[in-house]
């Protein structure tokens, strides 16, 4: 029994220390009411050396000592350049989703236990959950728990990114659209004049071998020329390899590597991560010398059809920016996300945090617009 008669017990645990509870953590990730593969242990622990400095998690256990909630985050003191602390949910360039892991039995109660823990440990400190669902069961649990405690909320960076969702019935709208289907068919025919194009989806132990083809394609392209390809950065290469390998070996999770090959030579590759009944189209690369044949688009079309045939996958997050020029045309489904700022019922920090966060985002937008104008000259 927790404080104030709560049926939940909470604790703050450094991220690396959670490895000792890996089995329970993996079970929670696999059964979460809204999955988040980036908070699954295989991925999170792989990312810890590179992106996990100062990261811990509010861990929630029920009366039977079962892990029912996990909120990875870190305490930030420098987000706005003023001495106003902020707890920030854990995201990073390789993990574009901040959905906490919640057991489906009592999601609002689990959220409430986490909010109460934060109020005791850091009175008056706001919480920012980046890239969190703007609707659905996790959003509803957050709304209910925060309203019950007299807390306050504000949404920033509201946006929608493309997702692939299995049709709900025979009369449902199509899951895939291809407004340039005739052009893509022509490109396939032209590509076939150069050799035999084949598509395959590697999983399990084979995924690690296929991952090498993705790294090679990425290194041959613009990222390789810019020095930002994983093959040029040993720490990133190690993290991605460990994450894919770990997920491929984890019950309730997985990793798939899709390849489009021409006479056996990879010309496009995509990495898909899975947790529960959800998947994430995480990374993609293609042979830029064959750009006139759009190998990346052809791979995505083949992969989309293959994922819709997977019996254990209901939805695929594109991990793409809003209005992405390729995936938004192919996947009509959308996932609404926002950065959710949560204030406790006491303390003046929330109002000031809202003003500072608004200013911060205005400055970022102005800087980007100035950069784009300079690039356009």
From TrEMBL:
Residue ranges for the region (Disordered) are: 164-192
Name the source's superkingdom.
Answer: Bacteria
Name of the molecule in the record: GNAT family N-acetyltransferase
Q: Which residues form the BioF2-like acetyltransferase domain?
A: 182-316
- Name the source organism: Rhodoplanes tepidamans (Rhodoplanes cryptolactis)
Q: Identify one Pfam family in the record.
A: Acetyltransf_6
């Amino acid at each position: 029994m927790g404080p104030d008669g709560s049926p939940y017990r909470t604790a703050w645990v450094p991220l690396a220390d959670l490895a000792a509870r890996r089995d329970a953590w993996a079970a929670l990730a696999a059964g979460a009411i809204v999955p988040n593969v980036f908070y699954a242990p295989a991925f999170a622990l792989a990312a810890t050396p590179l992106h996990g400095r100062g990261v811990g998690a509010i861990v929630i256990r029920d009366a039977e000592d079962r892990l029912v909630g996990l909120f990875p985050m870190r305490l930030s003191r420098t987000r706005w350049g003023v001495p106003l602390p902020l707890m920030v949910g854990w995201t990073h360039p390789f993990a574009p989703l901040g959905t906490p892991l919640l057991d489906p039995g009592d999601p609002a109660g689990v959220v409430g236990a986490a909010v109460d823990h934060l109020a005791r440990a850091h009175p008056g400190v706001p919480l920012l959950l980046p890239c969190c669902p703007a609707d659905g069961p996790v959003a509803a649990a957050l709304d209910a728990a925060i309203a019950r405690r007299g807390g306050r909320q504000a949404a920033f960076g509201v946006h929608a990114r493309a997702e692939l969702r299995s049709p709900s019935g025979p009369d449902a709208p199509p899951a895939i659209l291809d407004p340039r289907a005739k052009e893509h068919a022509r490109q396939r025919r032209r590509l076939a004049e150069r050799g035999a194009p084949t598509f395959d989806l590697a999983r399990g132990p084979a995924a690690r071998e296929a991952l090498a083809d993705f790294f090679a394609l990425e290194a041959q392209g613009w990222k390789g020329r810019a020095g930002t390809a994983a093959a040029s950065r040993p720490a990133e290469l190690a993290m991605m390899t460990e994450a894919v390998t770990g997920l491929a070996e984890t019950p309730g999770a997985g990793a798939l590597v899709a390849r489009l090959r021409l006479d056996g030579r990879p010309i496009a590759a995509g990495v898909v991560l899975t947790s529960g009944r959800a998947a994430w189209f995480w990374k993609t690369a293609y042979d830029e010398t064959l750009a006139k044949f759009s190998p990346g688009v052809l791979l995505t079309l083949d992969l989309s059809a293959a994922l819709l045939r997977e019996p254990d996958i209901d939805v695929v997050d594109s991990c793409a920016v809003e209005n992405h020029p390729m995936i938004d045309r192919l996947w009509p489904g959308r996932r609404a996300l926002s950065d959710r700022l949560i204030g406790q019922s006491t303390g003046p920090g929330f109002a000031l945090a809202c003003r500072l966060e608004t200013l911060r985002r205005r400055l970022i937008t102005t800087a980007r617009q100035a950069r784009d104008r300079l690039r356009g000259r």
